[in-house]
Structures are given as C-alpha cells and as structure tokens.
Specification:
0% of the residues lie in helices and 61% in strands. By secondary structure, it is an all-beta fold. The protein has a five-stranded antiparallel β-sheet with strand order 1-2-3-4-5, with no helix packed on it. It comes from Mucilaginibacter humi. This is Lipocalin-like domain-containing protein.
Amino acid sequence: MKYESGTYSVTADSCTETQTYSLQESKLLNVAVHYQYAIRNDTLVLNGKLPGGAVIEDYWKRVK
C-alpha cells in the first residue's frame, strides 16, 4: 500500500521535498520543505524546519 510520495531536489548540501501524495490527511501536501543534509557512514541525516515551525532531525540508515 502506498503511504506517501513526492518530488525531491538535491544540491551540494541541501534538498527540497514536496509531498505530492499522502494516504493520511497532510498539511504538507504540495508544500516545499527545505532540509540541510549530511551523510555519515551509512546514515543520511536531514535537518529542517517545517512550515508550522517544528524543528526536525531525521535519520535514514542504509539497510543491506
């Protein structure tokens, strides 16, 4: 089941995510969210601020 999808744009040190579909109601639908990112070993770390003001830090670890 598809939960969420979107478009992404990546530059040298930041990325922009625009959510284009969400299975649940979302206030971020079609809103561009900007993140700073870093890659540490096998982990992608995203830091950003949501439009409502919440500061977030996400960790995405590579699964082999």
